[in-house]
Amino acid sequence: MSPINETGGDRERPTRGRLITLEGGEGAGKSTQISLLLRRLREAGVDAIATREPGGSEGAEILRKVLLSGVVKPLGPTAEAILFAAARIDHIDNTIEPALAAGTWVLSDRFSDSTRAYQGGAGGLDSRLLSALERVTLGGLCPDLTLILDLPAEEGLLRASRRLAPGETQDRFEDESLQFHERLRAAFLAIAAQEPNRCAVIDASASVTDVAEAIWSAVSSRLLGSANLDIVHGA
Q1: Is 45 annotated to bind ligand?
Q2: Which residues form the Thymidylate kinase-like domain (predicted)?
């Protein structure tokens, strides 16, 4: 992405990057779609990277193994939310914020809305605690666009089970009940309804190509309008 002049013209700095997050239940196709979106943005001349949560930085990847193994589950959603917050702080400090400051767009497979939905909406964690954790963790950082890939819970779980390699077991969250995943889906849709300016719901039951087109349409209309395209292409 081309830099723009600072006021006064003494030196140049890059335009701050954009943060796009992909959210949704298990099996919604986030990993596939984030790869397709990354390629398309780069083809459009946007400097972009892909990352994930939990994970995305050295410290956060260590916590990812702990969280997805299920060893924290007996401690309840509060402990899980706190560990997710710790992983997110490391992710933001070491991956997301440096990239955004350098003018790079960041595509994250899950972000803070997953904590709201998994530990909050589906896990029953008090929303006041979640809000407090967000204030400490995010420090004012908010996605420019959140794409919520929506899929019936039963279909998502079936897809997730099909992608398992021989001998591979489900992770801590895939192994939850159908009722949990139905609450999860409702929580994501509630977030979208509460913040329509930030969130776009994408029908993930469509074909991979159709989902990718719907995502690109949302990104184009919300973040790649005429003014933004001028910045992207250095006009």
Answers
A1: no
A2: 22-215
Structure tokens that stand for 162 in this block:
């099909």
Domain count, the chain: 1
24 is in an annotated binding site: yes
Look at residues 137, 87, 108, 85 and name the one whose alpha carbon lies nearest to residue 17: 108
For residue 203, is it within any domain? yes
The pLDDT tens digits of the residues spanning 53-105 come to 999 999 999 999 999 998 998 999 999 999 999 999 999 999 999 999 999 99
Confirm whether pTM is higher than 0.85. Answer: yes
* DSSP-derived 3-state class of residue 184: helix
Q: Which two tokens stand for residue 93?
A: 């400090």
Is there a domain that residue 4 lies in?
no
Residue 74: give its domain's CATH number.
3.40.50.300
Known binding residue 167? Answer is: no
